[in-house]
Amino acid sequence: MLKKHFLLLSILKTVVLLNNVLTNNMPPGPFPLPLIGNVLNIGFTDPLGSFQRRYGDVSTLYLGNNPCILLTGYESFKEAFVEQADIFTDRPYFPIIDKLSKGKGLIFSSGHMWHQQRRFALAALKYFGVGKKTLENSILQECRFLCDSIQLQTPFFLSQTRFHLVTDAVANIICGLVFGHRFEYDDHKFHLIQEYLDDVFQLPISNWGRLYNQFPTLMSMLPGKHQTAFASMSKLKPFLQEEIIKHKEERDPSNPRDYIDCYLDEIEKDSEAEFTEENLIYCVVDLFGAGTETTSNTLRWALLFMVKYPEVQEKVQSEIDQVIGQTRQPLMDDRTNLPYTYAVLHEIHVRQHYYLHASQNGQQGHDSRRTSHFEGHFIFGVMVLPLLKSILQDKNENSTPYEFNPAHFLDENGKFLKKDSFIPFSIGKRLYPGEQLARMELFLFFTSLMQCFTFLPLEGRTLSLKGTIGVSSGPEPFQIRAVPQ
Ligand code: HEM
């Protein structure tokens, strides 16, 4: 019975696919095969680079039977997400996302609901000091905890995102903003929350997630990692509910302490019932999921590159020594006087995106619900995949796009060179809402680590610059030595 159902479904999908390919005025792309689409056209070493080379900055790629518009290049990004922002802002529908978050929260919601949640998140982040001294002080406090803990660990082990000090430190910044408190690095509950979040956030970009998107009914009956992630989401909720209950008991509405307090205020005021406790849980999950792995991965890449390029590490440290010295902590105001260090951080972002795979951008697509005339093609109801990596590695932007070279962000006088096309946080209405927060975290954590330690390889070990697949790509697990300065 199940086999018959599957066969009928496959035939139907193939007919729809052929109809789409033959009648749509879609951008160019390779001819798709039934069920698997263009999977065979995606290269292993440079998954989607070949599409850009053969078809230009706007091409069609079939993920299974579903057509997507693949965007590469800054100009096509600008046209879609800035000039036609009203059309290309919603998220596409994925069964896996629907199952995990019911289309709620911040990252995967669309329309009025997304607009409301995003407006609120931006206001809350601003209220709690993004770009202000209060937040800077709490990040600096976390930098001290991190450096003290690294001092006790040698060699310093940097595993996958789970359970390592850098992720703990970064997660604590979100904890402060959302819960109003931090966790000790050896807190079992803290690690459980991170473990569950990791399961949930890795699922949509995993093969299990892709299978679920293709065959949701079938997959919901089968065992696999998707079931672990669903269970993790269920286990995560009571932790967050416990925090919400505590906040309800202790809060003073005239003096909100954190994101949850502000959200509870909004629930009381909201007549459209879009601000609910359930939605609060999904928003908190999104803030942790989006705000922890990304920043922690960038910092782990930063340490790895410093070990791989000791001459760059030395230059960064001597700049920090000259401008800040060893007696005080780095401050955001030091940024303008540390052009080399700042350029190194930007270059690390570019390298990190080099390792981003096609699959990771898949969940950041934008849905065009209305017909639009885009680069000479009529587009309707298809997913759009922006490939950020293509912009960051554009030969016209960076003289040596495949080399780690901080000079990409320096002018001839050694001053920091700002580039419009540097958009690791994306552009348009979906631009990452806490860009300033991430910039602050990256700068303060990186300069603090460079001020306190020299990072060296372990004798006889070769460090790999290969990236892992994740929401954002991290380096493979590695061990290094941290020698106090
Ligand atoms: C190195 C650090 C980070 C990078 C590179 C980064 C990058 C991105 C990118 C590329 C997007 C997708 C934008 C789009 O769909 O066009 C995004 C979305 C998002 N990020 Fe980040 N991010 C970082 C850190 C953070 C942090 C610390 C937070 C926590 C406040 C955060 C929260 C979010 C949220 C909530 C969204 C969804 C926005 C929406 O759909 O409206 N991110 N980020």
Automatic annotation (TrEMBL):
BP GO annotations: organic acid metabolic process; xenobiotic metabolic process
Signal peptide: 1-23
GO cellular component: cytoplasm; membrane
Database matches in Pfam families: p450
Keyword Metal-binding: yes
One Gene Ontology term of the molecular function aspect: oxidoreductase activity, acting on paired donors, with incorporation or reduction of molecular oxygen, reduced flavin or flavoprotein as one donor, and incorporation of one atom of oxygen
Annotated coiled-coil segments of the chain: none
Cofactor(s) the record lists: heme
Compartments in which it is found: Endoplasmic reticulum membrane; Microsome membrane
Record key words, sorted: Endoplasmic reticulum, Iron, Membrane, Metal-binding, Microsome, Oxidoreductase, Signal
Similarity remark: Belongs to the cytochrome P450 family.
The protein's name: Cytochrome P450, family 2, subfamily AE, polypeptide 1
